[in-house]
């Protein structure tokens, strides 16, 4: 059994750290809002530390799952960040959805201290984290990947290394590009079905058996038709991710016209007050637009 630290006990990090603790590892946690860390320590065996640096002391592995690039910099290489407490030869595994650039930047800083670094963003959402069934996309050195794999396996259904540091984040960007287009297509399909006077539920029951089927269709059409969006993956997070994607595309030359448009549509959902709504709320925007016609 291993000593590990986990930084960031949000919707995703809380259950992920829990799987490590339940597997018998010694888990040292840090969360910016201390009450949340104390709640975690009530649910799982583990100790609460006041800074990332202190949580990281004596840990062979330090996991993080925070919000964005700046949050990650703060908990990794800030004044009281984890790097300051990590020993030579230890490994930092970042599960935040962040840019490939920040992954490379932090990996270089970690290397100066003889610390390994993996970027390892996840997909599968809250349910995937709570059920230990996440998909994990990893970038980094093969040796670091091999030694982190048995730990990541505690909360993952699929773990893959895509290439050097940054590759995990680039793979996650592809994931978000694919989701953006599919959700908008589904929203438009349901919108059209209603406008055409069809029973939209029946339409989905029919077409979900064929080529139009998707995870979004299977899992979201009922809540979309019911106008329920208080669940799932928040629009604010999606906009953060799409900003990362569009920035990367400016550098690598990829053409993402639909992604850019859907990003604008999400800004309209935010203006409707839907920043915390699930990404399927693109349908709410269509309903709203139509009511102003
Ligand atoms: N939710 C999903 O379905 C999902 C799916 C895939 C990927 N992700 C990605 O996973 C990451 C975490 O998502 P989440 O849903 O767990 O978010 P969340 O519930 O908002 O949790 C964010 C965590 O990061 C901490 N944090 C944020 N900024 C910080 C800072 N500057 N210093 C220290 N701690 C900080 C927060 O601490 P406090 O408790 O103090 O706020 C909290 O523990 C994001 O990058 C997200 O895009 C999320």
How would you describe the overall organization of this protein?
The chain folds into two domains: 3-163, 3-Layer(aba) Sandwich (Rossmann fold); 170-292, Orthogonal Bundle (N-(1-d-carboxylethyl)-l-norvaline Dehydrogenase, domain 2), CATH 1.10.1040. The chain has 13 helices and nine strands. A six-stranded parallel beta sheet has the order 3-2-1-4-5-6, with helices on both faces. Helix 1 (13-22) links the parallel strand 1 and strand 2. Helix 8 (167-195) packs across helix 10, helix 8 packs across helix 11 (235-252) and helix 8 (167-195) crosses helix 13 (282-292). The protein has 293 residues and is an alpha/beta fold. The protein is 54% helix and 14% strand. The longest helix is centred in the middle third of the chain and has 29 residues, at 167-195. The chain binds NADP nicotinamide-adenine-dinucleotide phosphate. Residues 8-13, 31-33, 36, 65-67, 71, 74-75, 96-97, 122-123, 125-126, 233, 237 line the site of NADP nicotinamide-adenine-dinucleotide phosphate.
Top keywords for this entry?
binds NADP nicotinamide-adenine-dinucleotide phosphate, six-stranded parallel sheet, three-stranded mixed sheet, 293 residues, 13 helices, alpha/beta, Rossmann fold, N-(1-d-carboxylethyl)-l-norvaline Dehydrogenase, domain 2, 9 strands
